[in-house]
Each structure stands twice: as structure tokens, then as C-alpha cells.
Specification:
The chain has 298 residues and is of the alpha+beta class. Helix content is 45%, strand content 17%. The chain is built from ten helices and ten strands. The strands form three sheets. Strands 3, 6, 7 and 8 form a four-stranded antiparallel sheet that branches. A hairpin with a 4-residue loop joins strand 9 and strand 10 (294-297).
């Protein structure tokens, strides 16, 4: 069981680099949670790894999070405030150590990537995929265009029907003023329809963790104090807090209504594992969405 878990962890560490490399080539941005989640999808937990620890987090997830420090030490991964990124040495490591045995041995021994290994570029197989997607979009467009043309052809018939019904027009002439009065209110209704969809919100949202004293609260891990409360933005339906924190490693959770009765941790899990923050020092903004129960660091 132990050897299997160790091999799985090394497979997931390699998957982390592969996922980050793919994000570079596709020009997409992934946060740390998304990278870890995808690595676990590619290398699923065994029964032992799926067991929940006391903090409510799977054993395999905790192992992977801790093991990711080896990638940082090797210079193959950078953990920053805006998320995880892969430097050139990390990209080169994905091709220098293609199989998991060589990858794990190099990682454990601190073996540097050979100097003659070039920085890999996006695999050529992705280009046809983009062409195929473009072809599908073009086909979909061709499919919908005749319908639009048919609608345009049918339009004169509607106009002709209006011309051939003078009695109906006369009968409704008296109702025209009322119609005009109702159309004057239409813009307000349209504006309301374009507003962000609202989600029932808690009365208060706090960020409770081991830095609450730094924010001015009397104690840490205390969601009841004003200093821990986040501010709600009704336009975008999110809660935010910006704080000036010294460099360090911090843990915290999102707690609702100034108590621990309802709280959310990593990946938006209720009563889940603590969120973690490796901070370089300076201002940091944390945003919480009650629709997803998860956070974004900015």
C-alpha cells in the first residue's frame, strides 16, 4: 500500500508539471486548486489515499500538497500569490525525465535538468485539434445561416398581412396611447434583466485564520470580530477583503454569520481542510463567492 501510494504521488507530481506546461501552451490560467484537482483526476486515489483525515481532506490530497514542495525545491515549480506557475526548468524537466521512475529519482536526488535539454514547445498534435474545432464552428454557422435567410424571406409576408388588415389597425388605434405609456417603462425592466443573477447571501462572511490578530482582532481563528469580516459587492455577488500581511505561510477558512456553524475550506468543501496561503509579503486580496463556496487570491 505504501509503495503504491508513493508511486501515485510521483505520478501526480509529474502530472502537475504536465498540466502547467499545457496551460502555458494553451495560454490559460489555472489556480493551485485546479491544478491539484486535475492531477488527481489523471491519477485517482486508491482506497487508502481516499480516506479522510481529521481535517476532512483526503489523505492523498494532503500527501500531494506536501510533496509539491519538492518541485519548488528543485526549481521546477513556483508558488506565488496569483497561483502556481512553471518556469523553464520545469518545462525542460517534463521532457528530460519522461517516465515516472526517472522523474522521481531526479526529484529525490536533486538531479538538475541536463543543460542540453531544450525548452519544449506545444505538441504539433494540438494544431489539427484547433482546425477541427474551427471546422465545427464553420459547419454550425452554415447550418444556422439558412434559417436566418428563411426568416428574412418570410418577413414581407408579415408586412403584407399588416397591410391587408386595416380594420384591425383601426380597432387598436385607441389602445395606442396605453401601449406608448408601457413602452416608456421598458428600459428599466431591461436594465433589471441584465443585472447579475442574485444568489441568497449570508448576513456576514468572515475570513478566520491564524492572521486575524494581524488584522487587529483580539484573537486568531475568531469569525465573530469586525476585523475579520469581508465586504459584499452586490454588483458581482462576491465578498472581498484586502489585507497587508508580512511574508509567511498562513491557513484560514471562510466562516458565515460570525460563527463556525457554517464554514468552508479548500475547494469550497463545508467543514473542509484549511485554505493555505504562501505569501511573499504585502497586500493580498481574498475574494469569496457564495455561489461556489470557494475563494480566489489576488
Amino acid at each position: 500500500m505504501g509503495a503504491n501510494t508513493a508511486e501515485n504521488t510521483n505520478l501526480r507530481l509529474k502530472a502537475v508539471l504536465d498540466i502547467l506546461a499545457e496551460s502555458v501552451w494553451s495560454e490559460t490560467t489555472l489556480n493551485a486548486g485546479e491544478v491539484l484537482a486535475e492531477a488527481i483526476v489523471r491519477v485517482p486515489f486508491n482506497d487508502h489515499e481516499a480516506e479522510l483525515l481529521s481535517g476532512g481532506i483526503p489523505r492523498g490530497h494532503k500527501t500531494l500538497t506536501s510533496a509539491s514542495a519538492k518541485l519548488v525545491k528543485a526549481g521546477w515549480l513556483v508558488k506565488g500569490r496569483s497561483g502556481w506557475t512553471i518556469p523553464e526548468d520545469g518545462l525542460r524537466a517534463t521532457v528530460a525525465f519522461p517516465d515516472v521512475a526517472a522523474f522521481a529519482a531526479a526529484l529525490d536526488a536533486g538531479t538538475p535538468v541536463p543543460a542540453d535539454v531544450p525548452v519544449p514547445t506545444a505538441p504539433p498534435v494540438k494544431a489539427p485539434a484547433r482546425k477541427a474545432a474551427a471546422s465545427k464552428r464553420a459547419a454550425a454557422k452554415k447550418t444556422t445561416e439558412p434559417k436566418a435567410a428563411a426568416a428574412e424571406v418570410a418577413e414581407p409576408k408579415v408586412a403584407a398581412a399588416k397591410v391587408s388588415a386595416p380594420k384591425a389597425k383601426a380597432a387598436t388605434a385607441k389602445a395606442a396611447p396605453a401601449a406608448k405609456r408601457s413602452t416608456r417603462k421598458a428600459p428599466a425592466k431591461a436594465a433589471a434583466a441584465t443585472a447579475v443573477e442574485t444568489v441568497p447571501q449570508p448576513e456576514a462572511v468572515a475570513i478566520a485564520g491564524d492572521f486575524n490578530k494581524i488584522l487587529g482582532a483580539p484573537e486568531d481563528w475568531a469569525p465573530q470580530y469586525d476585523e475579520a469580516q469581508m465586504e459584499f459587492n452586490p454588483l458581482v455577488q462576491v465578498w472581498t477583503i484586502t489585507a497587508e500581511l508580512p511574508a509567511g505561510f498562513y491557513t484560514y477558512k471562510i466562516a458565515l454569520n460570525r460563527s463556525w456553524d457554517e464554514n468552508y475550506g479548500a475547494f469550497g468543501a463545508r467543514d473542509g481542510a484549511n485554505h493555505e496561503l504562501n505569501h511573499d509579503g504585502g497586500p493580498v486580496t481574498i475574494t469569496y463567492s457564495h455561489a461556489t463556496r470557494d475563494i480566489v487570491i489576488g
